[in-house]
Amino acid sequence: MVSDSHTRRAVVTAVAAALAGCAGGDDGGAPASTPESDNPALGDATQMGDLRLTSSAFEDGGAIPRTYGHDTDNVNPPLSIANSPPETQSLTLIMDDPDAVEPAGKVWLHWLVWNIPPTQTTIPEGWTPSDAIEGTNDFGNRGYGGPAPPDERHTYRFKLYALDTTLDLPRTADKRAVGEAMRGRLLGRTQLTGTYAP
Question: Is 122:147 a contact under the CB 8 Å cutoff?
Fold first, then answer.
């Protein structure tokens, strides 16, 4: 005979597992760390190869200066790109906030840029790309939208991808569409994170 306490533990375990499956979505309910085979733009950009992304404005995991916030100067921080594979044809840059997840599981998008030339090694502060395409962020604007956490300190991911192709996408493409186009074309990827408080 199964004890009441054993039954309660089993029920609690099953409910916890179900809730965990529902809570960690990224863009339409995909898991927080979506495998590359599903969509490389979703979840963390786990290190692949020697590609590197750094900033002179903050260290990896450090605080993003307030000037780069949405409600202040709202300009992108300077970024440096290193070790792009020799075969790279384009770079894609995505900035999102995994701490800001909408009820449907969509992670808030702050910046989406694709077809960055492979020779690009610096992205200056307040960059307006001429040889790359900027998508629309979740503020409804094309280009960079700075951190704007409504409640507490959030972590922001700057994700960089080296591709063996350029992406033939309309300017209206969203993060999911860009990720689908990148599938199977990655030569390298890396991630820089920063935090920002209200």
Answer: no
Q: Nearest-CA neighbor of 160 among 126, 113, 197, 107?
A: 113
DSSP 88: -
Describe the chain by its helix, strand, coil percentages, rounded to 5.
15, 30, 55
Beta bridge partners of 39: none
- If one counts the domains in the chain, the total is 1
Is the CB of residue 30 less than 8 Å from the CB of residue 52? no
CATH number of the CATH domain containing 63: 3.90.280.10
Range of the domain at 152: 4-196
- Residues 31-70: pLDDT tens digits? 444 444 589 999 999 999 999 999 999 999 999 999 999 9
18-38 pLDDT tens trace? 333 333 344 544 444 444 458
pTM equals 0.82
In sequence order, what are the residues at sequence separation of 6 or more whose Cβ sits closer than 8 angstroms to the Cβ of residue 156? 64, 95, 96, 97, 110, 147, 193, 194, 195, 196
